[in-house]
Amino acid sequence: MEIEQLKQKNDRMFVLVCLNFAMLAVIFFGSGYVLWQSATIINKLKEDLDTAELAMVEIRERLQQLDVDAAMDRVMSDATEKIKVSVSTALQESDLGSPLMELSQRVQGGQEKLEQTTAAIAEINERLKNIETEELAQLVSYNMLKGLGEGFTEAAEARKP
Fold first, then answer.
1. Residue 31: which pLDDT band, with cuts at 50, 70 and 90?
2. How far apart are CA 136 and CA 128, in angstroms?
3. Phi, psi of 94 (to 5 degrees)
4. How many other CB atoms sit within 10 Å of the CB of residue 115?
5. Would you tell me which of 55, 100, 134, 155 could form a disulfide with 96, CB atoms 3.0–4.6 Å apart?
6. How far is 84 from 78, CA to CA, in rounded Å?
7. Would you say residue 97 has pLDDT above 60?
8. At what angle are helices 98-130 and 68-93 packed, to 10 degrees?
9. Any idea of the CA torsion for 82, 87, 88, 94, to the nearest 10 degrees?
10. Please, are residues 118 and 76 in contact by the beta-carbon 8 Å criterion?
11. ∠ CA 24-30-31, rounded to 5°
12. Which H or E run includes 99?
């Protein structure tokens, strides 16, 4: 009887050991699968990162090539042209008479002066870009001191007894 109980106990242990080995195999293969999936995801993320870096380089190059002043000039000229067309169309369609036409011509003249002023400002801006700040500071201080010197000389001559 005891031998039968020991055999049953041994059989149960054998079954438990086999189940443990089976569970160990499942865990081992599961870990291998998870590791393989992780490596695949990491490789895909590296490829995506490389693609994103290339896109950033391309965007950076495009931004460096973009001339902000030229773009603003184009936008302003397009807007100005559209405003001219809409104002002239509105004036031609209205029955308000010649005073409005004169006003339109004056506005157009003011527009031309504004464009000339914009061009002059752009030219001044270009000239200022070429002048270094140190040179500009020296030039301003020289002219101020020169002006003060001439002013003091004139004041002294005017008060001379």
1. very high
2. 9
3. -90, 160
4. 13
5. 100
6. 10
7. no
8. 170
9. 140
10. yes
11. 90
12. helix 98-130
d(CA 119, CA 28): 76
Q: With 70 as the cut, is the pLDDT of residue 84 above it? A: yes
- Cα-atom radius of gyration of the chain, to the nearest Å? 43
- The token pair at 21 is 């080995």
Summarised one tens digit per residue, pLDDT across range 123-144 is 776 766 666 666 656 666 666 6
User: Of all helices (H) and strands (E), which one includes residue 75?
Assistant: helix 68-93
The SS3 of residue 1 is coil
Query: Which tokens go with 17?
Result: 């050991």
The residue type of 160 is K
The answer to whether residues 86 and 111 touch, using CB atoms and an 8 Å cutoff, is: no
Q: How far is CA 109 from the centre of its chain?
A: 36
Q: Which two tokens stand for residue 58?
A: 């391309």
pTM for the whole structure: 0.35
Unique residue bearing structure tokens 């086999």: 18
Question: In angstroms, rounded to a whole number, what is the distance separating the alpha carbons of residues 16 and 23?
Answer: 10
